[in-house]
Amino acid sequence: MMKRVRTQHLMLPDGAELHYVEIGQPSASRPSVLMLHSLFFNGGMFLPVIQALQNEWHIICPDHRNQGLSTAGQKPATMHQLAQDYAFLAQALQLSSLHVVGSSMGGYVAQELMQCAPQLVRSAVLSCCTSMAEQQKERFDQLEAQLRRDGGAPYVSALLQTMFGDAFLASTDLAAQAQQEQWRDYFTHLPPSIANSVNGVFARPDYQSLLAGNSTPHLLISGALDRAKKPADMEHMHSLLPDSTHTVFEQSGHTTPVEVPEAFALQIENFWNQVN
C-alpha cells in the first residue's frame, strides 16, 4: 500500500517559508524521523525509500532553506542555520526525539544538529559525507561561480555524473530510469540562487574533533561507486565515533537513497529497530 504524503509549510523566525512533506503520525513509543536531502535535490528524494519501509513511521522530509519549495529568508543557508531551522521545526511540531537521516549535504546538517540540539537526536544515519572541512575548495568555488552565473542547465551532465554512480546511470530498470529523468529535469531548472546553498556546503567547518564525544548511535553508509566522497571518508568517521556501524553499497554512487532505495530502507529500518 502506498503511504500517504501530506504537504506542509512552516514560517521560520526570519521569514523563510519551510516546505516539508509528512508521512504518518507521531508515536509515543518511538522517535519521529527527519530526513535531510542532498545538495541540488529536495525532500522528495527520499520518497522511494519511504515507500520501501516495512513499518509505519512518522517521517518529516523538508526542503532546505533556499532549495526546493522552501524560500531563502533573511539568513544565509549555512549548515548551522539549517540545523537551527530543524530544531525550530521539531519544537513547532512538539517532537522531542528524532532518528535523523542525512544524505551528503544533509549529513553535514545532521552533524550540526547534534551539536546545537544533542538531546533531540536519538540516532543518526549519515550517507556519503565526511567529518572534514571541504578539501577541494578551489574546484567548488568555480562551481559556485558557474551556477551563480548560469543556473543548473549547462551543467546537468556534470551534476548527474557527480551525484550518481555508473550502475544507476546505466540501469535498464524502469523505476531507476524514471528517477534519473526526474532528477535530470530538476537539475536543468536549478536557479542561479542555488549557488548560495553550494557556498553553505563548501564553507562548512571541520567536525572531526567533535566525534569522539558524540555518543549518539550512528549508521554510516557509503557508495562504492561514489565520485564525490569515498568510503574511506566514512571509514575515518567510523574510527572516531564511539558507537557506529559502517556499510558500503557496492552498486551505488553518491546518492544512495535514490540509487538503491530498497537496500537503503532495509538498512536504516534494521538500525532504527536496534536503537529502539
From TrEMBL:
Pfam families: Abhydrolase_1. Residues 31-255 form the AB hydrolase-1 domain. GO terms for cellular component: membrane. Gene3D superfamilies: alpha/beta hydrolase (3.40.50.1820). It comes from the Bacteria. This is AB hydrolase-1 domain-containing protein. It comes from Alcaligenes faecalis.
